[in-house]
Amino acid sequence: MRPDPASAAAARLACRSTVAPTAGMAPGFTQCNMISLPRDWAWDFLLFAQRNPKPCPVLDVTDPGSHQTALAPGADLRTDIPLYRIWRDGLLADEVADATEAWAEHPDLLTFLIGCSFTFETPLQAAGIEVRHIAQGCNVPMYLTSRACRPAGRLHGQMVVSMRPIPADRVAEAAMISGRFPAVHGAPVHVGDPGGLGIADLSRPDFGDPVQIRDGEVPVFWACGVTPQAAVMASKPPFAITHAPGHMFVTDIPDSQWQV
Amino acid sequence: MRPDPASAAAARLACRSTVAPTAGMAPGFTQCNMISLPRDWAWDFLLFAQRNPKPCPVLDVTDPGSHQTALAPGADLRTDIPLYRIWRDGLLADEVADATEAWAEHPDLLTFLIGCSFTFETPLQAAGIEVRHIAQGCNVPMYLTSRACRPAGRLHGQMVVSMRPIPADRVAEAAMISGRFPAVHGAPVHVGDPGGLGIADLSRPDFGDPVQIRDGEVPVFWACGVTPQAAVMASKPPFAITHAPGHMFVTDIPDSQWQV
After folding, report:
1. Rounded to whole angstroms, how far apart are CA atoms A233 and A160?
2. What top-level class would CATH report for the domain A120-223?
3. What is the ipTM of this complex?
4. Which InterPro entries does the record match to this protein (chains A, B) (predicted)?
């Protein structure tokens, strides 16, 4: 069934007034991570994304100073994400529900929209694979790993991953379903032992909320679009605006557009 | 069977002294299109590639002035392609087998390596699908289409496609096999009537050689990494070096790395 485009617009409207994670909103539509950087940092970032396509699949880049994207022509990138983070010199300076003032401060910002794994959660659910953070009504757990991204110019940092517990007999199917969507992180980067990614304790995620892992389930890790925020923390550009982890930009593009 | 890495290095060595299309060389290894542009044009090009991922899947970007790529650490990008094209103000100024002098002229060139559909010809052949230009021992036919790329900054132009005639009962399989390799153009962009792409006469390709189309075969069109050369012709940057169509850079990366 083709998803109703009105649901994507309605989700963005709701995001203007409600601060909550967006997993499960507007099922069937692509969700995006966001990072806005001064023009002077745009080349470094686009190259960083090209060199790290699993965590940073770029779906659109705005013109300098623009708040509009081809992924959702009617939307305003300054208001249509539930929660933004304002970064100064690599430090989290503020979290705001409306980033209009922050944008006005730097009129030359370029905005990058990056695929989000929430996009393939709809096909996972359609296959009968429970997505635990949606079932629990919380944010997805995300972890800073020990795996270094390939640096680009002034940008470097470790990869961030999201985690979903999957029953052992459905892991292969979850890998294949998500693998059909390389534009929104694709197949898992790691299955099983969190120690292999340098993660000490699954119950203490670096971003988002912990979720229950049941007997017979395996933690499965996907590259995550919060990786640019880890790069901001490590590389300290003078200014950046990002979405808050788990609080995504809902686009008008059906999931199916990315399927290979 | 894992392809022998020595065959990729041997192919590059052969390309230093022999001018011939590279389809069929070093089977199992990724081949690349190449374009080198002055640093001032690098942002426009990387954005053009992001906006047109089917014809321009970027696999690596060099540092300014470098002739080395992570895709083949021992290689020299100035000599290891069989034939180069030198462009001045959007016009083809020269074709050379060694681009060392041209590179020396512009020490700030950045080089982009872009996936090539020759990469999925090995899996097509493994499935018993004949690749006509390899069977005929000629270059693949390529056509300038009427389909506009999404512009980026000063860069614009029409998409170029490669064509392979496929028996009607194997078209679906050819689409699925190539579709698993989005990093090297992925699934076809058009199947059948050349008129739908604005191509008047299949026997007169814009680049490469015509191939025989047999009864019961359908022309199948894939996005092509010669598209940047069409953008050079249309957008007229002051200087560029590219490979000559069909004369690719052979990397050390096995095809399988790109499979989703």
Report:
1. 12
2. alpha beta
3. 0.89
4. D-Glu_cyclase (IPR009906), Putative_hydro-lyase (IPR038021), UPF0317 (IPR016938)
